[in-house]
Write a structure and sequence with these properties.
The complex is a heterodimer of chains A (294) and B (404).
Chain A lengths: L1 E2 L2 E2 H32 L6 H19 L3 H22 L9 H23 L15 E3 L4 E3 H23 L1 H11 L1 H6 L4 H23 L9 H16 L4 H21 L7 H12 L10
Antiparallel strand pairs in A: 1-2, 3-4
Chain B lengths: L1 H21 L7 E8 L10 H19 L4 E8 L4 H14 L4 E4 L3 H14 L2 E4 L16 E3 L4 H14 L4 E7 L2 H16 L3 E8 L7 H9 L4 E5 L2 H13 L7 E4 L4 H7 L1 H4 L3 E4 L7 H14 L5 H20 L4 H10 L11 E2 L5 E2 L2 E6 L12 E7 L1 H4 L14
Parallel strand pairs in B: 1-2, 1-3, 3-4, 4-5, 6-7, 6-8, 8-9
Antiparallel strand pairs in B: 10-13, 11-12, 13-14
The chains are: A mainly alpha (294), B alpha/beta (404).
Subcellular location (chain A): Cell membrane
Main location (chain A): membrane
GO molecular function (chain A): transmembrane transporter activity
């Protein structure tokens, strides 16, 4: 059976792969959206933080024998803590200024981080093995599905919806949202708003590091891995609506699917299809698909 | 007394003039070598700082052994794989800093740009990193030497050997830019000429990180061989993901351009069994091992063919300068072309009139992890491809310098 001249097995497998890549986009753009939505900082260091997450997992394994499952927890904590330090020492001074300053600062930080890792480990990348429990694959009939990729979708979606739930449905999330709307009043109610903001940035950064650990067994762990991905992720955030939590999750998954299908029908365009959609969305809905008009 | 002083002064001046006269063949009594390479980008592991180290080694060895009557200096710069940066830097070096030769030049676009500047200013270019064949065909000139390898030799090594060993059906995974397309074209020609068939190809964006979609298309083609017409991180990610999706070992991969730095970064577990073509392997014989260990002590990595070729080409250049007794480009080029190259890198290597340095290439197969006995023990050398067979014959050359 064929769908638009493409064997249905190939069509189905591309949809599945699109979903897998989409879950990476979703988790990375979610981190960006939280940081922008609550701190008004365009975090250009997000790709570098994703890369550092993967490197921490690799270093932990090769130097200290720390396995994947521990790294999945340890790496986000370490990189998130680094994010807290950055927020306390640098970003905090920029909140009252134009968005551009935050963008420039984080862009500079990204270049510094990438430079340090390039200097230490070279550019070719390091191999990280799939953990034993997730080795091998399942024959789905239309494709061979590596178990690890299935795990990536499950883990990424669980974290995404957990985060959405925390921000939209819990008391802590309510404080956060109120604190960014009107910090003076919330502070007057006895809530430590600066601490909340620090926590938020650290959490956003930890999400990037978490995605980095998920990515390590699939891609070579390389200083450039974040730089290659971050532009697409920014496009996802813009399409979804800057700062919209649900928007970034849904758009991330959706664009992964569209990109996967482009790779079957017209592979040469697969690198630009996301930007093509971004242009159309910005023309029709300048605030993005899920964004609130300013 | 006064006359005596005047006389001494006159004598000193005359002597000084004599001295300058004796060295007037060398601009500034110094031969200056400019290493222009990728110090921070995609190709910085296979060329980069390692190429600078190799150049430094060549200069030190040359000065120690040959005791030349002139000084040798080195400068280096990062061209960031951008043609405009490369040509601006080369112009500045040639015009203002007295640089006699620009060397290394990984990535074809930077190499072609610097070749133009060098031709205009009549300076020597020694290329080790770039791979495309136009360098010694349409774009060739009389000041340039293409030293280490090219896409013709790569295709002629890997694609030919794999097809002859029974890998008749090919599918290409090609990076969608000039280099990838050239490599696919050269390789397809070799496959067909050897009785094989190309059943399809897919062009992926450059650079890409996720290859699963493209690999599934290659899998659906049922080709025996998936030819990877890409380089660097694209190749390593494609190989890793082919194993993840169970494509290898059912279908076999052929890496059409791979360096030992790529194999090192992938690990033998992922790279085992692959065929590739290289101009140099550190563990080939006692001579290559001795030089490579010295390189390792400085760089903490074994040399790629680009870095080994860098040493060899700089040494050949300096010897030619000494033999010609001048750093004049025309005379040095003539000397380089007429002298065969015999060192750890090449045996009876020869620079042809189109600028191609012809030397033996090696077809190697990556070892299984259990076959590797010591660090960097990565290859079985399967076949030595004689230079005359490996490189495009002069009769097919499209270089205007070649008399037909």
């Amino acid at each position: 059976m064929e769908i638009f001249g493409v064997p249905s097995a190939l069509f189905g497998s591309q949809l599945l792969i699109g979903l897998i890549n989409g879950s990476f986009y979703a988790i990375l753009s979610l981190g960006l959206a939280i940081i922008f939505g609550l701190l008004n900082i365009i975090n250009f260091a997000h790709g570098a933080q994703y890369m550092m997450g993967a490197f921490v997992a690799w270093i932990a394994l090769t130097k200290f024998g720390v396995n994947y499952w521990v790294a999945l927890l340890l790496s986000p904590i370490l990189i998130g803590a680094l994010g807290v330090v950055l927020e306390r020492t640098m970003l905090r001074k920029l909140y009252k200024l134009d968005h551009l300053y935050g963008l420039l600062l984080t862009f500079g930080l990204a270049l510094i981080f990438e430079g340090i890792f390039r200097d230490q480990y070279g550019i070719s990348g390091q191999a990280y093995e799939v953990p034993d429990a997730l080795k091998g694959g399942v024959n789905l009939g239309f494709m061979f599905m590596p178990i690890y990729r299935g795990w990536v979708v499950v883990a990424a979606l669980a974290v995404c919806f957990g985060t959405w739930f925390m921000i939209e449905k819990t008391k802590l999330g309510a404080y956060l949202r109120a604190g960014t709307e009107n910090p003076q009043i919330v502070q007057a109610l006895g809530i430590n708003v600066p601490l909340l903001i620090t926590f938020t940035y650290g959490y956003g950064v930890a999400l990037a590091a978490f995605a980095g650990v998920l990515a390590a067994p699939i891609y070579q762990v390389s200083p450039q891995m974040g730089a290659n991905l971050i532009i697409v992720v920014f496009a996802v955030v813009v399409i979804g609506g800057m700062g919209s939590i649900m928007g970034s999750i849904v758009t991330g998954l959706g664009l992964g699917l569209i990109e996967g299908l482009t790779r079957v029908f017209y592979p040469e365009a697969s690198a630009v299809v996301v930007f093509f959609i971004m242009v159309i969305v910005l023309l029709v809905r300048p605030a993005g698909l899920f964004g609130k008009a300013a | 007394m006064h006359t005596k002083k005047l006389l001494t002064a006159a004598c000193t001046a005359a002597l000084a003039m004599l001295a300058t006269g004796a060295h007037a063949q060398f601009s500034g009594n110094t031969v200056k070598i400019g290493v222009l390479t990728d110090m921070s980008g995609t190709y910085s592991d296979l060329a980069g700082q390692g190429a600078v180290v190799a150049t430094q080694m060549a200069i030190e060895d040359f000065v120690a052994k040959e005791k030349p009557g002139f000084k040798v200096e080195m400068v280096s710069a990062d061209h960031q794989n951008k043609a405009d940066i490369a040509s601006n830097k080369a112009r500045e070096w040639f015009e203002r800093e007295g640089v006699d030769t620009a060397t290394e030049l990984v990535t074809t676009s930077t190499a072609l740009a610097v070749m133009k500047v060098a031709k205009e200013m009549n300076k020597v270019v020694l290329m080790n990193g770039p791979g495309s064949t136009p360098i010694t065909n349409e774009q060739c000139n009389d000041v340039s030497v293409h030293y280490t390898y090219d896409t013709y030799a790569l295709a002629n090594g890997t694609a030919k050997a794999v097809t002859q060993q029974g890998g008749k059906n090919w599918f290409f995974l090609t990076a969608d830019y000039a280099f990838g397309q050239a490599l696919e074209k050269d390789s397809s020609a070799v496959v067909t000429a050897n009785g094989g068939k190309v059943v399809g190809s897919v062009r992926h964006p450059f650079p890409a990180s996720d290859f699963s979609s493209f690999l599934l298309q290659a899998q659906a083609s049922n080709a025996q061989i998936i030819g990877l017409a890409n380089a660097g991180a694209d190749t390593t990610n494609a190989i890793k993901q082919a194993a993840e999706f169970g494509i290898t070992p059912k279908q076999q991969l052929a890496g059409l351009l791979m360096f030992i730095s790529d194999v090192h970064s992938l690990g033998l577990k992922n790279a085992q069994g692959m065929f590739l073509t290289t101009g140099f392997y550190w563990d080939l014989n006692d001579e290559t091992r001795a030089w490579s260990k010295r390189f390792f002590d400085k760089q903490k990595r074994m040399p790629t063919m680009v870095q080994a070729g860098q040493y060899s080409s700089v040494m050949h250049y300096l010897k030619a300068v000494k033999a010609a007794g001048t750093d004049d480009t025309t005379k040095v080029m003539a000397q380089m072309k007429k002298t065969p190259i015999n060192d750890f890198f090449a045996k009876n290597g020869q620079i042809r009139e189109d600028g191609r340095m012809v030397h033996d290439m090696y077809l190697v197969q990556v070892k299984k992890p259990e076959e590797s006995k010591y660090p960097w023990d990565y290859y079985h050398v399967k076949q030595v491809i004689p230079g005359a067979e490996a490189f495009q014959p002069l009769s097919l050359s499209r270089c205007p310098l070649v008399k037909k």
